[in-house]
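RECORD TYPE: protein structure
NAME: RND transporter
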Amino acid sequence: MSALAAALVLAGCSTARPPAEVHLELPNQYREQANLDGAWKLAAPADDKDRGAWWTVYGNEELNRLVVAATESNQNLAIALARVKDARAAAGVVDADRGVQADVGFGPTRSGNAQGASTTYRAPLSFSYEVDLFGRLSDASRAAQLDAQGQEAAYRSVLLALQSDVAQLYFTIRSLDSEIDVLRKTIALRQEALDLAQRRYDAGDTSELDVAQARTEWATTSAELEGVTRERAQRDHALALLLGRAPAEFSLAAAPFNAPIVTVPAGLPSDLLERRPDIAQAQRQLAAASARIGAAKAAFFPRLLLTGSAGYESDELRDLFKWSSRSWLLGPLVGTMLSMPILDGGRNRANLARADAGYEATVANYRQQILVGFQDVEDNLAALRTLDRQMVFEEQAINSAQLAARLADSRYRNGSASYFEVIDAQRSNLASQRARIRSAGQRAVASVGLIRALGGGWQTEPHGELQTGQATPVALARNP
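PREDICTED:
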């Protein structure tokens, strides 16, 4: 009994604790927004903070409806949710090993010797319980629970990516709608220019070259319209897929592009990056790998198993469940069995090596995810900064190009300029308008990209003018 008491005292006391969790230092600010002052801080996941429905900052009801529809019907999101359920169930399976295992049975056995043969009927209730001496079971359970938490973070990552993709596709489609509108108006002007050139040629005021050039410009612009229309159709098909629908079942009606103006506040703190769900997933994978090292080390130490059974046993089936037929059985050392591996062909050592290698891989993955997160933020900050300046120059170019086009057309109608000047001015006017539209679309896409890169917004508090962040997963809320 003293040996058993000592073993029970050791239960839960692990001599093979996992290594400490890795911390990664982060700069306080971003290079594209401010000069670094040399201060650093430790990273800590904060993906559980609610940032609200961030897409509503754009004030577009149609976009709001599309995001909600995608959240309800997207198949990749359904897959991610199923993986969360699977990981939670797997954690339950692993955790079950820490409890008492009991089985009930019934069956006859036939035995014999030199004196004869007999049949014995048994109805036993068997039980077993492994005392977690060195933390093997608790470490395995902790690793499985962290795996489940990692899948929950993966779900949030898929959700945030889905919401961002819908918003970015929506703004891209709307910018293409505006570009198509400009091209159609330009084609109408090209047709008027062609008619004018034809009339002047018929009157003998110009050569056939002007007619050919005008027809070329009309055909070229018409071809460009078909290319942009094709691109718009492909983006529309991609949006249908995000909504969980076939392209034939969905079509986003054309509408003008009202470029949203979302101003990024100065001095974004780098700890906003810690809310990214992919970084949280990597951190939990790291912690799970750390726990698996503890479980692998504990496999080298003894295991204590408490066993026993109780029930009924009789030579006659009719007497099996009588009180006089009751029986019980305990193993050696009052129902205990202490075992320790001696020869296993190097299995435990190989498992420990695998756990160490897995831990090293997750450390590298954790660091890489944080670095990727910084790159995403810096890229989108740079895009917003340069696009703002680019659009100012493009607005100036549009004003100048429109003036040049009007002057060239007037001079051509008066016979004081060649048609080549008209063509050149019209080309510049069309190019400047299309460039301005594309830049506005790219800026909207970059603003969504920044929100996504920051894990769902840049508000540090749940109150304020801008309520951004991922929505609480409805399916997960129903299945805590």
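COMMENT: The first strand starts at residue 25 and ends at 27.
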